[in-house]
Amino acid sequence: MDIPVVDFDVYRVGVEDVADEKLNVLSKELKSAFTEVGFVYLKNSGISQHEVDSMMNISKTFFLLPHEVKMPLLRGKAYGSIHGWISYGSERTGSNRTWDLKEAFNIADLQPMALGVALGGSAPRFREKQVWFYRRCADLSLRVLRVLALSLGLDPDIFLSKHSRVVDGEQQAGGEQNRTTLRLLYYPPVQTECVQEGQVRCGEHSDFGTITLVFQGPGGGLQFLGRSGDYIHAPSIPGTVLINIADMMQRWTSDRFISTIHRVVLPPPGDMSDRQSVIFFLLPDDDAVITCCDGTDKCPPATALDFLMERFSQTYEEK
Ligand SMILES: O=C(O)CCC(=O)C(=O)O
Ligand SMILES: [Fe+2]
Fold first, then answer.
1. Cys-Cys crosslink for 84: which of 8, 75, 115, 255, Cβ 3.0 to 4.6 Å?
2. pLDDT value at position 230?
3. 241 lines ligand 1 (CB under 6 A)
């Protein structure tokens, strides 16, 4: 099974006032991808490869800084449980019993203090790039939500209206009432002799928000679980963004859109390449109550925050 590539040009970031009828073809294509596969590559999204490369570059500059420079930004100490730096090998994902071979930085709060101003000249413009990329991703993902609502014959604002605080004001986004997160990931070259049995770059899991945007560097390894039960590679395709449905959207649509299990495996032995990705987890506002949009009670209503906290504790474990 291949992951479809869909052209988003008609509604790319920057294009305004598009009549619903112009989104017909796009909505049919996205609906079939998300009901059958759960993943899609979007080309012509309006976020350019140049912008992605620039975000990747600053992200790598940050990850290659010495441990002690990154320590003040550690997650869970200074800035709450989502926002901040996750050091190498200190998190495990899904049911995997070994620690992921990765380092990460979660951006869930765009306040200057939270964003590494302290890094000063070590990673110049780190904060500005994060804010800017977060806002670009927010713009794209809210467009996708509108198309998804249309594709199911629903009020085009049904999903959007529960994401009113993803972008909030000039300098902030989310914060206390919306936990949408931009996550920078760095998977260093793997020293085969140090790898434990079962250890991978990121354990198998499904994401728990509404939708997820995935920007990948050239290093491969991302795989998703196909319906046949086999894992399928999702390589990086320059100029595209990979989008997947996450758990809350699956619930919201009474399981019509599928939140697909995925993981990041190790490179073949002897392959010393690193891997980078930049992920945008779109989440509804904390107090949004998610009920099945077809009027059934297939999934019991829950607030986005309650659902998130439950899935968060099931998915991630920290050292
Ligand atoms: O690195 C990747 O491409 C995927 C990581 C991932 O699935 C996640 O952080 O949820
Ligand atoms: Fe994921």
1. 75
2. 95
3. no
**For residues 58 and 125, is the Cβ–Cβ distance under 8 A?**
yes
Residue 119 has pLDDT above 70, yes or no: no
Which ligand 1 atom lies nearest to the CA of residue 275? 1
Q: For the stretch 262-274, what's the b/e string if a residue is b when 16 or more beta carbons lie within 10 angstroms of its beta carbon?
A: bbbebbeeeeeeb
Structure confidence by residue, pLDDT tens digits, 247-281: 999 999 999 999 999 999 999 988 999 999 999 99
Which atom from ligand 1 is nearest to the alpha carbon of 187? 1
Select the CATH number that applies to the domain covering 5-318 from these four: 3.30.420.40, 3.40.50.300, 2.60.120.330, 1.10.10.60. 2.60.120.330
Report pTM: 0.95
Average the pLDDT over 84-89 and give the result: 92
Measured CA to CA, the distance from residue 78 to residue 38 in angstroms comes to: 36
Edge-to-edge strands, sheet with 262-264: 202-205, 262-264, 222-225, 231-233
Q: For a ligand 1 pocket test, name from 216, 277, 280, 308 the mutation site with the most ligand atoms within 8 angstroms of its C-beta.
A: 277
Residue 112 has pLDDT above 80, yes or no: no
Residues with Cβ within 8 Å of residue 91, at least 6 apart in sequence: 99, 100, 102, 104, 316, 317, 318, 319
**Mean pLDDT throughout 302-308?**
93
Domain boundary assignment for the chain: 5-318
Ligand nearest to the CA of 259: 2
Distance from residue 263's CA to the centre of ligand 1 (Å): 7
Question: How close is the Cα of 139 to the center of ligand 1, in Å?
Answer: 20
What pLDDT does residue 211 have? 98
Average pLDDT, the chain: 90
Report the residue among 137, 180, 187, 202 best suited for mutation to probe ligand 1: largest number of ligand atoms under 8 A from its CB: 202
